């Protein structure tokens, strides 16, 4: 009996340690989706990069990732985001980079296209894929995952070299263990999406699989098979879209592993503060008008790290409030949204009017909003509100 009790206590202690075992010091992700290209007339139409980033961000957050999601970035903005991402990659971190948008290859070197790229396909106007890998490998991250959901074809007027299917451009420069590079297609092939789907095929299956409590090695195989089983073929040359994966995994890692944040050094602390700042929005509701029994409030939601949804509501119900703002305010793009959009319907009730403020990384000065309060037979009242604190990613980008 004494032996049995002794063994029981050993197992109990071992189990206690297991309860508090943390595989990762932190888990961080940078997701970039580029859709609205300035040279769109020279490119195939993209349908889902923004949905892909939004939905993938939600899944990653559900398993404990800190996510920075950015859409429609220029080259300088992509480079800046990558530099800021690097600051988060402390020792023991699980790091994931995802790009959805246009891409191409020249002489075996891949490039990710920013929205301000020109039809020249000049390497200096685009972000080299190797730069993403180099940045992440230069960190002390425990796991580096790079997912490139973009084409790898060579523009017709550029020189090309034949690239063997089993020798992607990343293999010669992967320099450390636990690196996983996922291309959405093979070299000199294209990535496809369907307008009828909510997401692109790559994101669709990542979203289904990446949040599961399974080893990364198993998810990788299931993901490859899922894309193959979609039976996606290039309409011109009938080549099937097949994912191209290069890996140097040595640990049986699960992305749903527990996390213990151990910030080490000034750079790590600065990076953590930067990530937190990139997600700060005003505590709502914010009362912008309170007079004669009429109350107007604003509510806020981060759609992406550089896109803010602002809704207005008022009491009593017989009053009506709307935003009265131009398309460009302080360097940001402003568009009207409706309560029918799922993001509005899920997060707000009684929202009368809503706007989307995008491109927050380009915010100049304070963000100023103008609303109009109306009631039948009364003169409309104009309400002005100035957001003193820069929201979301603007807090980081506008300091540089």
UniProtKB/TrEMBL annotation:
PROSITE patterns: CASPASE_P20. GO terms for molecular function: cysteine-type endopeptidase activity. It comes from the Eukaryota. Residues 25-155 form the Caspase family p20 domain. GO terms for biological process: proteolysis. Signal peptide: none annotated. InterPro entries: Caspase-like_dom_sf, Caspase-related_regulators, MALT1_IG-like_dom_sf, Pept_C14_caspase, Pept_C14_p20. This is Caspase family p20 domain-containing protein.
